[in-house]
Amino acid sequence: MLELVEGDITAQEVDVIVNAANSSLLGGGGVDGAIHRRGGPSILAECRRLRAGHYGRGLRVGQAVATTAGRLPARWVVHTVGPVWSATEDRSALLADCHRNSLRVAASLGAVSVAFPAVSTGIYRWPLESAADIALSTVAEELAGETSVKLVRFVLFGQQAYDIFRSRAV
Ligand code: AR6
Fold first, then answer.
1. CA–centroid distance, residue 170 to ligand 1 (Å)
2. Is the ipTM of this complex over 0.95?
3. What is the pTM of this model?
4. Residues of the chain above pLDDT 90, percent
């Protein structure tokens, strides 16, 4: 099942919330800032451990990795790094990878419900219409396959983002 809601992803009572992070995994603005603020320091502590271990060079664009969700109602945060929008280079496959890999990491944890923000559409400037098409089609494809995930909720920040996602979901 695929749901669209307008709201704040940090308030979602789901197994996994996806964070639109950056390669450093060490926090930032936008939804990343909100997740670390509301989730508390244990998320950053785990991100630092990831950087000290397997992710010494950071998380690559399109990849995903899980941490605790700290004080958030969710059980885990899956951090993914969206591509920065480019008018001259087609980076759609990387944005699709973010969604696919986030769902696969969620499934590896046995998660049933997952909430996504509109990855890359803020500071990384990806146009909402295009991001919606890529996100919705990739998630639908993944849900049609073998996965523990039964519910994906897109949590859109503001009426405009919600309306655009709504208009692209057929
Ligand atoms: N809940 C749901 N959506 C939100 C929230 C929230 N609390 N806050 C913002 N959004 P962005 P990006 C929406 O900029 O474009 C960070 O600094 C926002 O309106 O958070 O992937 C990272 O560290 C937009 O539609 O992520 C990276 O450096 C969407 O979330 C960089 O920003 C994504 O906006 C990543 O940029």
1. 25
2. yes
3. 0.98
4. 99
